[in-house]
């Protein structure tokens, strides 16, 4: 099945988006449909020399500053809406966009609809740790939640960890301010109580320091908390690399050491780079949807397209439909 890519979405569109799509097409043999202004897209494709990538014309563009709901309703021939329509019509398996994330979510709900039984779709973020990748869900789709919503996030995160990360029985926990059941808010306490009634491998409350301690595989929280956690981690990763660079420049001996450890430093930097994961899927809707950073470059887009293909190949939607209640 083809992957529909919003060629006009993102800070570096269409150039970086199209280059990323070309890399995915050439390196991984993925069938791709670039959606957007046909003349612009074909000109970019000519520059890359790529042949065999399909183009679907869309005359309009949803801008970053557009109101999500209004943009989806009024800009009916936008690259974002046309791309989602391809998935809804069964002409593409998944849709990838680095454009207006609010509009992508609104469009997915309006056009693709929710999987039966899902109350609210959620975004899982894959985070690298010393013991392996973990899943943080929800990473920003739902600011205000009820305990029932968080339990469903846990079910979807569990399905995602099994199908995409290959973890046979993921450990699921609730993000709180202490391990004790009595700690946290009414939301976290009620959520933990509900989790204990499920068949999930629930390990209780988890604190912020537990993300990198190997205590769980799926960390569940509302989108407000999740987005703050994710953005803080991204900022800290950048700061750590800046600290390292600053210390290396302070002495000649440190510079020599950096040269000797250059390969290890580059590998760590690569692990901490969001572009390595490309984007995050929107779980709970029919069809695959991957939302990318607005500043995504070609490498990020290539990896996001690979992620979109994985959602389809590993049957994540079907698994969520099977386990959700």
Give a structural overview.
The chain has 325 residues and is α/β, with parallel strands linked by helices. Helix content is 46%, strand content 14%. The protein is built from 12 helices and 11 strands. It has helices spanning 15-28, 38-48, 68-74, 79-88, 101-112, 147-163, 186-195, 223-248, 252-260, 262-272, 298-313, 316-323, and strands spanning 3-6, 32-36, 54-57, 94-97, 124-127, 134-137, 171-175, 201-206, 218-220, 279-281, 288-292. The radius of gyration is 20 Å and the shape is globular.
Give me the side-by-side strand order of the main sheet. Answer: 3-2-1-4-11-10
Instruction: Name the average pLDDT.
Output: 92
The shape, in one word, is globular
Question: Structural class of the secondary elements?
Answer: alpha/beta
Ends distance: 28 Å
- What is the quaternary state of this protein? single chain
Radius of gyration: 20 Å
Q: Tell me the β content.
A: 5-15%
Q: Helicity range of the residues?
A: 40-55%
Keywords:
alpha/beta, single chain, 12 helices, 325 residues, five-stranded mixed β-sheet, six-stranded mixed β-sheet, 14% strand
Which helices and strands, and how do they pair?
Elements: E1 3-6, H1 15-28, E2 32-36, H2 38-48, E3 54-57, H3 68-74, H4 79-88, E4 94-97, H5 101-112, E5 124-127, E6 134-137, H6 147-163, E7 171-175, H7 186-195, E8 201-206, E9 218-220, H8 223-248, H9 252-260, H10 262-272, E10 279-281, E11 288-292, H11 298-313, H12 316-323
Parallel strand pairs: 1-2, 1-4, 2-3, 4-11, 6-9, 7-8, 7-9
Antiparallel strand pairs: 5-6, 10-11
């Amino acid at each position: 099945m083809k992957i529909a890519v919003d060629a006009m979405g993102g800070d570096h569109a269409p150039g970086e988006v199209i280059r990323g799509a070309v890399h995915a097409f050439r390196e991984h043999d993925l069938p791709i449909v670039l959606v957007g202004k046909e003349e612009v897209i074909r000109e970019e494709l000519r520059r890359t020399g790529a042949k065999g990538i399909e183009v679907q014309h869309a005359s309009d563009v949803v801008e970053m500053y557009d109101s999500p709901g209004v943009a989806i309703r009024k800009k009916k021939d936008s690259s974002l809406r046309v791309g989602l329509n391809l998935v809804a019509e069964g002409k593409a398996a998944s849709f990838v966009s680095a454009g207006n994330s609010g509009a992508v979510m609104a469009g997915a709900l309006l056009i693709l609809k929710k999987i039966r039984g899902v109350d609210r779709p959620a975004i899982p973020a894959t985070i690298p740790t010393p013991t392996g990748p973990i899943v943080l869900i929800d990473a920003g789709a739902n600011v205000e939640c009820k305990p029932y919503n968080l339990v469903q996030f846990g079910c979807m995160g569990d399905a995602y960890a099994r199908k995409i990360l290959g973890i046979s029985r993921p450990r699921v926990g609730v993000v709180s301010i202490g391990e004790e059941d009595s700690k946290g808010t009414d939301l976290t306490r009620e959520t933990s109580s509900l989790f204990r009634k499920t068949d999930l491998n629930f390990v209780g409350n988890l604190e912020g320091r537990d993300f990198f301690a190997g205590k769980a595989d799926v960390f569940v929280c509302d989108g407000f908390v999740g987005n703050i956690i994710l953005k803080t981690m991204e900022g800290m990763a950048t700061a750590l690399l800046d600290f390292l660079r600053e210390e290396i420049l302070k002495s000649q001996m440190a510079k020599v050491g950096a040269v000797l450890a250059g390969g290890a430093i580059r590998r760590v930097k690569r692990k901490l780079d969001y572009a390595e994961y490309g984007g995050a899927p929107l779980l709970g809707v029919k069809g695959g949807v991957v939302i990318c950073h607005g500043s995504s470059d070609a490498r990020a887009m290539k990896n996001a397209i690979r992620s979109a293909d994985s959602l389809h190949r590993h049957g994540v939607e079907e698994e969520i439909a099977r386990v959700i209640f």
